[in-house]
Amino acid sequence: MYSYTRLIFQVSPVIISRSQYGKLPFVELNGEHIADSQVIINRITKHFNIKELTDPKNRAIARAVERMTEIHTFMVQYYFKIVDDANTLAEIGCRDAHFPEWLIPIIAPIMGFFIKQKTMPKIVSGVGGMSTENYKEVLRKDYDVYQALLDKQKFLFGDEIAAVDCSVFGQLATVLYLPYSTYAKNLLKEEYPVLVDYCDRIKETVFGDYKPE
């Protein structure tokens, strides 16, 4: 059990579980499944009467950053997690499924092809179709925004975590803590150490010494 902003919560590691709406992440509050990051934050904030960012300008900035993070950054990182090296992802999936080693070099490229075919239309719909180099450029610009907003602060709006910090962390963590390398992960670690430290700080503050089972 963990405590944060007066809330007691329990982390439940899952592999294939989804909410009743088929989504991740989700939380269960009084028996009700609540899915989608923004819906979760809004419901919990209202339910527990959590007050933060009293300044209207800061609330407006936070709202804009949340939307950028969960739509634009999400989609561009998704390209580098899934499409840019789909064969590696397919190989990992094959090994997790205990495919024979001799079969993996044969089947992984085929799976990678279909992964790209299924994923790319979603990315194009979300942020547009462009070259890999252009995706790299727009991802870098997103990271520049987060680094500029953070500046020398502990969190985006000072010494206390706000909901927008959780949104940014939720996206950056999906590449930073992956067990394999991607362009996005390497970019963060090599050129944005401030953002890496920021993510580690949030992880430590919210989850402490939590270790997956």
From TrEMBL:
The organism of origin for this protein: Cylicostephanus goldi
InterPro entries registered for this protein in UniProt: FAX/IsoI-like, Glutathione-S-Trfase_C_sf, Glutathione_S-Trfase, Metaxin_GST, Mito_Protein_Transport_Metaxin, Thioredoxin-like_fold, Thioredoxin-like_sf
Protein name: GST C-terminal domain-containing protein
Entry GO terms, CC: cytoplasm
Domain Thioredoxin-like fold, residue spans: 10-87
PANTHER family (UniProt xref): GST_C_6 DOMAIN-CONTAINING PROTEIN, METAXIN RELATED
Domain of life: Eukaryota
Pfam family, one: GST_C_6
Domain Metaxin glutathione S-transferase: start-end pairs: 140-202
Family: Belongs to the FAX family.
